[in-house]
């Protein structure tokens, strides 16, 4: 599978990106915290880029993109992504974001409707009430806790600052991610113009009750035989945690591509 790689100068970052495939509306991939393009989407990329252009990027402090003296939060990461699309001269995309990337995909869908044709929003709540209480452990992450994991080895192999001190800085920033944010109102979720596919694991960091509420606000949870299948949908992946949310490649690929091509 051929790919093009490059860096875009955006908001003080040298933002790494990859281009795969060709055709159709480009699909923008946005990874989760502590992941990167390869760790989050590597197994999915061949299938996702079959017959379509795929744009993937590493967020601030992740993968090949440098960190800067700025907290990590949805507003700044969204601004980075908008800047990247402007640099690449891409007027509209489909977006597939997981966790932190899902929060960015959601903000793009709410605040930049002209940029988004369809949105896949995975494993993220639209308000903090949808998060499980155990998630607070993320705020206490130390480098020792991920020693020997693919996240540690990939960070040290790819980062422009490949040392454990910078990795701890990243963990601390992720622990403070959007702390105190209120999330989105019901009206803001209802008003999203783009058809949305919500995905969540059945033992994820987001409660299933919240995922269903998200779907209801998007016009789902109806008898489709009588009123038609809504343009916004929900997929619950079985036996799936937050960490391995996209691990069932065949299932995830079929779910995502069927929605995008529908």
Automatic annotation (TrEMBL):
It holds the Pfam family Abhydrolase_1. Residues 26-132 form the AB hydrolase-1 domain. It comes from Kribbella sandramycini. Gene3D superfamilies: alpha/beta hydrolase. GO terms for molecular function: triacylglycerol lipase activity. The lineage of its organism: Bacteria, Bacillati, Actinomycetota, Actinomycetes, Propionibacteriales. It comes from the Bacteria. This is Pimeloyl-ACP methyl ester carboxylesterase. GO terms for biological process: glycerolipid catabolic process. PANTHER family: AB HYDROLASE-1 DOMAIN-CONTAINING PROTEIN, HYDROLASE, ALPHA/BETA FOLD FAMILY PROTEIN.
């Amino acid at each position: 599978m051929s790919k093009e790689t490059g860096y875009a100068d955006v908001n003080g970052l040298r933002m790494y990106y990859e281009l795969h495939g060709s055709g159709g509306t480009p699909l923008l991939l946005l990874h989760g915290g502590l992941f990167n393009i390869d760790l989050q989407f590597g197994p999915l990329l061949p299938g996702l880029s079959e017959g379509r252009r795929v744009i993937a990027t590493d967020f601030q402090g992740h993968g090949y993109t440098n960190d800067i003296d700025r907290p990590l939060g949805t507003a700044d990461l969204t601004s980075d992504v908008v800047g990247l699309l402007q640099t690449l001269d891409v007027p509209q995309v489909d977006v597939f974001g997981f966790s932190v990337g899902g929060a960015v995909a959601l903000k793009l869908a709410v605040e930049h409707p002209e940029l988004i044709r369809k949105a896949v929003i995975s494993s993220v709540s639209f308000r903090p009430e949808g998060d499980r209480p155990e998630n607070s452990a993320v705020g206490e992450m130390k480098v020792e806790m991920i020693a020997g994991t693919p996240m540690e080895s990939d960070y040290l192999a790819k980062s422009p600052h490949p040392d454990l001190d910078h990795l701890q800085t990243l963990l601390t920033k992720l622990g403070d991610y959007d702390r105190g944010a209120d999330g989105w109102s019901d009206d803001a979720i209802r008003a999203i113009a783009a058809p949305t596919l919500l995905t969540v694991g059945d033992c994820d960091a987001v409660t299933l009750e919240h995922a269903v509420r998200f779907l209801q606000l998007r016009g789902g949870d109806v008898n489709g035989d009588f009123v038609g299948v809504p343009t916004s949908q929900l997929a619950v992946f079985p036996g799936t945690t937050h960490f391995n949310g996209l691990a069932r490649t065949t299932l995830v690929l079929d779910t995502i591509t069927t929605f995008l091509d529908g």
